[in-house]
Amino acid sequence: MEGVEIIAAENGKSGIELAREQLPDLIICDVMMPGMDGHSVVKALRQDDKTAQIPFIFLTAKAFESDRKQGMELGADYYMTKPFLFDNFLQVIATHLEKKADVARSQLR
Fold this sequence. Notes:
There is one protein chain. The chain is built from four helices and three strands; from the N terminus they run H-E-H-E-H-E-H. It starts with 11 loop residues before the first helix and ends with a helix. Helix 1 runs parallel beside helix 2 (38-46). It has a single domain, classed as Response regulator (Rossmann fold, 3-Layer(aba) Sandwich). The model has no long low-confidence stretch (mean pLDDT 93). It is globular and about 40 Å long. The chain is mostly helical.
């Protein structure tokens, strides 16, 4: 993961604030967090024009199909459950970063 800068937030509220300030290339978020859960985070980010297009990945222990469906319906780009294989996690990240880069390139044309 050379050249990758990671920004960490303590909770959902500070994660939203950081996302709006830093405009990261990708967001990885848990569903279960103190205060504001991940569902509220993705909803807030998708409603903000500045953050609506940032790839959003849930990484969570909530593994029921209904949990995955809810996360995707709220606007997540991917829903990954714990435990997970690190190589698979890196591939998911790389895939979504490449998709974002493809969109940016197509908008320049």
